[in-house]
Design goal:
By secondary structure, the chain is of the alpha+beta class. The chain is built from eight helices and twelve strands.
């Protein structure tokens, strides 16, 4: 028998079968996240499952038993399908918007214990956005952000000594402003109405709970549902920005966009991972900016390392004239 065509040895074959079953199970679990919060955790790592399944399928296509090949093929398709809209080409920008017709937003989770505040402030000054959403703001970070008042004089700051303090810095004064506890999750969100360059809009800056336990996952989901319901009936177009502690493939995120009618600004621009900045492995996208489908996305990118476990998120939008 040709050695190249020889079947895998029993121990190696057993490992292949185990790996294929695990990848298939993780893929299916991610699709069933609406049933249980633990299953939903698997949805956040679709890039990982795909990167593992592709080489396994290529290496074992001729040598593994058909159930192994079927499991691996299902893992490839089941994880590539939800990623596909992010890899498809984004709609072409008809014309570059003049600076006074576009809206630049930066969302950054600074990491409360991050001591390199100068790096964050220098980064924000270099980007010079119209609006800045800052997450994990405590008293020390609130004092540091006050140094930006010369350029962003309109600040709404809700510092906390846990990881859920929040701030919104703006160049223009908001027409209305409020701090809300969406879904009674116990963490603040900022809602501010602005007269934008082409149309008025409402910005919702938020940082839901991290789904590290069942109660926290439920609190996150309640908060996102309440935000979606608020957006759905808001009189002005809404933009939602912040660390949402969920990836686009989770049940919570799918429910958010379905209920609100908002669109992920990352669509067509690749999987732009923002967390964990301290790891060499592929990062997952849990920082987001969502906007109505009528809003044109002129630019979207992940910012540089500013000492946090999150990379900043930079977006430039053009709202339709209203």
């Amino acid at each position: 028998m040709d050695a190249a065509a020889a079947p895998a040895s029993p121990p190696r074959r057993g490992l292949l079968e185990l790996a294929s079953c695990c990848l298939a199970a993780a893929t299916v679990a991610g699709w069933c996240g609406g049933w249980h919060w633990l299953l939903d955790l698997a949805s956040h790592f679709r890039c990982y499952w795909l990167l593992l399944a592709l080489p396994c399928l290529a290496l074992t296509w001729r040598r593994a038993a058909w159930p192994v090949r079927c499991c691996l093929a299902a893992a490839v398709v089941g994880n590539a399908w939800p990623l596909l809209p992010y890899w498809m080409p984004a709609p072409a920008v008809v014309a570059a918007a003049p600076a006074d017709e576009s809206l630049a937003i930066v969302s950054v989770n600074v990491l409360r214990r991050n001591a390199d505040k100068a790096a964050v402030l220098a980064y924000l000054r270099s980007r010079d956005p119209d609006l800045i959403v800052v997450l994990e703001v405590d008293a020390a970070w609130a004092a540091a952000l006050a140094e930006l008042a010369d350029r962003w004089p309109h600040a709404i700051v809700e510092p906390r000594e846990d990881n859920f303090g929040i701030a919104l810095l703006a160049k223009r004064p908001p027409r209305a402003r409020a701090v809300q506890d969406f879904g009674a999750a116990g963490v603040p969100s900022i809602v501010a109405e602005f007269a934008g360059p082409t149309a008025a809009f409402t910005l919702v800056a938020t940082h839901p709970l991290a789904p590290q336990a069942q109660g926290l996952a439920r609190g996150r989901d309640r908060q996102l549902r309440a935000i979606a319901d608020f957006v759905a009936i808001a009189p002005l177009p809404c933009i939602v920005a912040g660390d949402l502690n969920t990836t686009p493939w989770s049940a919570a995120f799918r429910d958010l966009v379905a209920r609100s009618g908002l669109r992920d600004t990352a669509l067509g621009r690749g999987v732009q991972g923002t967390w964990n900045a301290r790891l060499w492995a592929p990062r997952i996208p849990i920082d987001h900016v969502l906007a109505p489908p009528t809003v044109e996305v002129l630019h979207r990118a992940v910012g540089p390392d500013v000492g946090s476990d999150h990379f900043p998120l930079e977006v430039r939008l053009r709202l339709p004239a209203g």
